[in-house]
Design brief:
alpha/beta; two-stranded antiparallel sheet
């Protein structure tokens, strides 16, 4: 009887231990276990009276766009295509990481599920608006990601900033100044140096 009770207590302890540990936690999504998306869903909002996409406009439909095409159709609308190649490559990385993050965190509004919209709510997107220099910048960083050392896929935020200015204030906020990226590129900084100036403690990593 004593052996039976000991065995029973052992069984209860084992069951209790199993319940306490619970199911294994889902693995974090990193550049080491998550490939860049093949495509991204873009909510297209109605235009304002001036013909520009309205951030508060009604969602008309959701367009599925190949991921690299999306990046090519955002960069010339967020960075000036005439800017230096190193500024454009820094911008291409920011556009890519921002959209990759939001692809992993879709939203549903008004019955539409999407990753980003085509306005300044996310990034300004105009289909097939890519230009030669901005397309080359996107292609140059195709196999690269800019992340924390653990590979977490984080959005890289950016703001316009002020022209002819290093825009130090954005560095403190972990945001890149678009005008600041051109300021540094004109002074011989590489796109990696520009990224590291604004986003501290991050590194370039190879992705599939």
């Amino acid at each position: 009887m004593r052996r039976y009770l000991l065995a029973l207590f052992s069984l209860f302890a084992a069951i209790a231990g199993t319940e306490l540990t619970g199911p294994p936690a889902a693995a974090a999504q990193t550049v080491f276990n998550t490939a860049p998306p093949a495509a991204i869903r873009v909510a297209i909002r109605e235009n304002n009276p001036s013909g520009e996409p309205d951030p508060r406009g009604r969602i008309v439909w959701v367009q599925t766009v190949p991921f690299e095409e999306y990046c090519k159709d955002v960069l010339p609308n967020e960075w000036m295509p005439s800017w230096s190649s190193e500024s454009l490559k820094a911008g291409a990385i920011a556009v890519k990481m921002f959209s990759w993050y939001h692809h992993l965190h879709p939203v549903t509004i008004g019955g539409f599920t999407f990753d980003v919209d085509n306005t300044t709510n996310f990034q300004v997107f105009r289909y097939l608006s890519g230009q030669v220099d901005t397309n080359q910048a996107v292609e140059a960083v195709r196999r690269l990601a800019f992340t924390l050392p653990n590979g977490d896929i984080m959005e890289l935020n950016y703001r316009a900033g002020y022209r002819n200015n290093p825009n130090w204030q954005y560095r403190n906020a972990q945001k890149m100044a678009q005008w600041g990226s051109e300021y540094w590129a004109e002074r011989g900084r590489s796109y990696l140096q520009i990224l590291q100036f604004y986003y501290m403690d991050r590194s370039l990593l190879q992705v599939p």
